[in-house]
Design brief:
By secondary structure, the chain is mainly alpha-helical. It has one domain. Helix content is 49%, strand content 11%. It contains three helices and two strands, in the order ββααα. Strands 1-2 form a two-stranded antiparallel ribbon. Helix 2 packs across helix 3.
Length: 76
């Protein structure tokens, strides 16, 4: 059995790729933590735009839009 190695798309660290993952374990965990925070924020502040969420949470607009593009968040 061979393991594929790749660089994390966020931090550049070398890691063993599992299940077509693009992020290393640390960056993946941080990404998940941010996602949960965004979901909680949206429950508390429904109807905010991506730009408003970005500003309120000090997250990049690209991060929020990426969640929408991936279908993780649904724009309403």
């Amino acid at each position: 059995m061979t393991s594929d190695l790749g660089n994390c798309k966020q931090c550049g660290r070398l890691f063993v790729i599992k299940h077509d993952a693009a992020l290393c374990f640390e960056c993946s965990a941080e990404h998940h933590k941010k996602l949960l925070a965004v979901r909680k924020h949206l429950r508390d502040h429904p109807g905010q735009t991506a730009a408003e969420i970005s500003a309120a949470m000090d997250l990049s607009l690209d991060f929020i839009l990426g969640l929408i593009r991936q279908g993780i968040l649904v724009a309403s």
